[in-house]
Amino acid sequence: MKLALCSSALGILLFSGCSVQSRVTPVAVDWQQHSAQIDQLRQWQVQGKLGFKSANHGGSANLNWSQNQQQYKLSLSGPLGAGSAMISGDSAMAHLRQDNQLYTDLPEQLAIQLTGVPIPVDALSWWARGLPSPSKSDPSNLITTADGSAASFTQAGWQLAFSRYSLTPEGNLPKKIVGQLGGHSFKLVISRWSFPDN
Prior knowledge:
The chain contains three helices and 13 strands, in the order αββββββααβββββββ. It is α+β, with helices and mostly antiparallel strands. It has a single domain (35-193), classed as outer membrane lipoprotein receptor (LolB), chain A, CATH 2.50.20.
């Protein structure tokens, strides 16, 4: 009788161990499903605030951002020094209009000119959605939440954290993205996601 009870207890322990282990597997699957769904989102608009900080510069601005495939338009207003600015372009080339002046350069160079922080604008369109950029090196240290969305990862030297996820018609999207690269950092806080096709 004691032997039977021990065998039963051992069986329950082994079964419990298997069931606990099997719960870990869906997280990886959920991330694949989540990222595949959000990857399909190529046209969107956000409103929010962008904060940035470097060793000798810092500030914040209200942000209106429209994205259509590779094309983007970011309107920044508020305490930027000159009041407002508009960046438009794609991953290869961007235009910055500020103070009635027009500048054309690589997107990252214009970001440095505007904020003092080397924010990779093309990658930011992916990071805003909580996804790694396919144009950068593979991400590392990926940590996902229980529902499969990214909580954090590192890419192109940037340590990125994602929070305040909100369920939208296009999927679960973050409303707070924080990035840090050495002494540089940025914080994107999104107040509203919208989708022109909806």
